Amino acid sequence: MAVVLTAALGLSTVAACGSGSSGSDAAATSTTAAASAALQGVTATGAVDLKTAPKVTLGKTPISSKDVEHKVLTPGTGKAATRADTVRLRAEIYNGTSGKLLDDGFAAGRSPEGYRLARTDIVAGFTEGLVGATKGGRIVFTIPPAKGFGSAGNQQLGVKGTDTIVVVADIADVHTPLTKVDGAQKPSPAGLPTVEFKNGPTKAPTVTVPKTKAPTTTQAVTLVEGSGPTVQKGQTISAQYHGVLWKDGSVFDSSWQHGQAADFPIGVGGVIKGWDNSLVGKKVGSRVLLVIPPKDGYGTAGSPPKISGTDTLVFVVDILDAY
Fold it and tell me: What is the pTM of this model?
């Protein structure tokens, strides 16, 4: 994702392997209501071609709202986005008080950026405002301070604690991520850990590590071949994962145990090297077994208290989405 828009929306930096997510459509009720007076003066002309920035007129400023308010500028087609969906878009983000453009998603040829609406590491008003969006449409919505940066604002972006944010978004795609990986699972190659889903694909697997020396190079084995899009460098993946130590099989982290999928930027240094180098090029819907030595994991420093600088890591990763 682009650095500026990431900062503008409050995305957290994922250092290794964890990012929570949850949500429901109930919180987004206000986005489906008729637009209030706050957005009556907002217009945007030009084709929704995802290449050319719209010509936006905010009308009379300051624009202020207490709720997330939503207006369709150009109708789209297909299913309306819910909190269970992923939306890809290009957007222009404005300070509603000053009218200043905070971020331009059309600048410098940036690709459409994707957001899984169940995520909780993005400012709440942004994901709430995208509920109801349809492919090929153009919408505008407000993010009030309470669902943006709060009373503290964001000094770096020039947003005060009383400023309402205005987002004009052109929608490239709306799709529903997988909730589980299906398909016949291949056995692990000889000498690598075995993986069993004794309680089904929505529960954590049982990983059995062999009583042999760990490999000295990263091993990436596709246990289930997905049929979805190929994961591209720079995308964000949504995945379920389960991590154990080679030395004793103990679990050090597991999204399945946390009860929700997690989201990671991939191929850009946002996660450990063993993930970056192994998951780009895999298909959505795949289950991948990773065995990662320290040099491609956390290095000699490890990740205390559970992971030492000599620990080889074993992961089972189910890729549910890439956006």
Answer: 0.87
